[in-house]
Input
Amino acid sequence: MSPEVTLLVQSLVSGLLIGFVFSLLSVGLTLIFGVMDIVNFAHGEHLMLAMYLTFWMWYLWGIDPLLSLPVVAIALFILGVFTYKVLIKHVLDAPMLAQIFVTFGLMIFLRSLAQVLWSEDYRRIGDTWVSGRIEIFGIFIGLPQLVAAIGAVITTGVLYIFLKKTRTGWALEATAENKEVAGLMGIDTERMFALAWGLGLASVGVAGALLATFNPISPEVGAVFVLVTFVAVALGGFGSVPGAFVAGIIIGVVQVLGGFLWEPRFKTVLVYAIYLGVVFIRPQGLFGQR
Amino acid sequence: MRTSRWQIPALLALILFLIAFPYLFTQPFLQRTMILIIMWSVLGLAWNFLGGYAGQVSFGHAIFFGLGAYTSTYLFTEYGISPWLGMIAGAVVAVIVSAIIGWPSFRLAGHYFAIATIAAGEIFAIIFRNWKTVGGAVGIYIPIVRGDKLIDFQFHDSKIGYYYIILAMLGLAALTTYALERNRIGYYLKAIREDPDAARSLGINVTLYKMYAMALSAAFTAIVGTFYAQFVLYISPNTVFALNISIQMALVAILGGTGTLAGPIIGAAVLIPMAEYTRVYLGGRAGGLHLVVYGLLIMIISVYQPGGLMAIYKQWRQKETARKMQQVTDAAAAGKEG
Output
């Protein structure tokens, strides 16, 4: 292969790998939105918390990110249920402004709390079980990125099977479809809302633990990922899990290709332009219904 | 809201106090803080035109702030055009951009619109960071002009010149809000905020009126952007196009109470001193501390009283009135019996 082609394939592969992580993040966000029409503006900050949790467990007790992953996922699940009970529950019937502001306030609160507690410094997890890289046909693939992509695909798959194959999953989807009718059918919608928050944040927990193996950690880290996530969720159609999954991958690839073919500095502009383009032409997204 | 007997004298007293302030309090720190409070009041009022009255939550208003700052600064440093003219040019640019962003975005409702504004804001920040003609990421220093003349829009011997300029802007923004509340357009906007579909079925051109609100909002934001540039004498994409500017504009309005005249002013009067004092007394280490408190306040307010501090005040006043009425009737009843 000529060097240009190698570089192109290299970019495509890395775009695809990070795209899977975007997918997992987006699935978490879209799950919450689908079930109760609320956008979690603090989604990025929940990711940031997951990454810090992974970091501190590694830094203080030397626990490898792969080992702490289940702990982080469970912790974030609990945080999700807690957030629902303490905050979100109270604004379900409130005006839309209040719904936007509440998670927005949470975003500011968590981000600045992290700044106060842990400073603006960038932190990195040093050697982990997955450090290093492998070479296939002259293409280098970072092991942490590969593991993160595989982990993200597995988690998304498990979540999807849960939604499609279990009774609780059906109840969750029914609630998303129509909460009044679901309530009449004997589904405890209150429990479903809490579950959606728990699962949404647990996905973020998994993504955070996986990202922490190679991505620097700072209080601002959520801001970088959350915009991409919003774009993916809108692109896939708010509330659509398969849509979010596909959109995450598209965005990962577009971002890297944009950086490769155009200008690395403008790769995010391209992603936002896609968002604006999609919502203007097809406000319901690629897979959205309504 | 019904005006009570003491409201007009109280308002006059407040206006007199604001006019006399720089002579009553001469410490630079206090004057600076007051200038910032007023500046953020104007920004909150500007945000309120779109966010409060038309109900379109924007987290991208830094675009207009930055455009105002950059337009006047660029015209001044490159062509020597007075910042006063630059300010008007900046407002015009902001209005044009608001139409370009607004026209397609207003097809999006609620959350989608809020996210679209975040994305638009980030696009502008990235463009200006990489635009060499206007200084790229480094930004532009505004050359100092001595003499403290009003026409130069720079004051170095004392901050009083800045104080009265921003106070005049506050007056303008407050009067505009007052007029809007009593104008057909204001009623249309409130109708759109409460129920866009119903408003449309009544024959209101929803997109057009939202665009009016956004243009007004953008123009005022840009004017304050020019003020900020002249006040600080240095602008960069990271200061004037920052997401934090957009967030804080929304915050002062939300905290005080959206869709009211006094709300954004009260919000600024609470938030800005808090921010300034934590910045000065706690320094860089706890730089985000005031934001922690902001975040908490916003959450508490949206859960318990989405109307902000103004709504809490109104509730208290209603209770107070009810209590007094009760006392009067009780007294009357007691009088009859006795």
Chain A has one domain: 3-117+129-281. The mean pLDDT of chain A is 84. The CA atoms of residues 12 and 253 of chain A lie 6 Å apart. Chain A touches chain B at residues 33, 39, 87, 90-91, 94-102, 104-113, 115-116, 119, 219, 223, 227, 230-231, 234, 238, 265-266, 268-269, 272-273, 275-276, 279-280, 283 (CB under 8 Å).
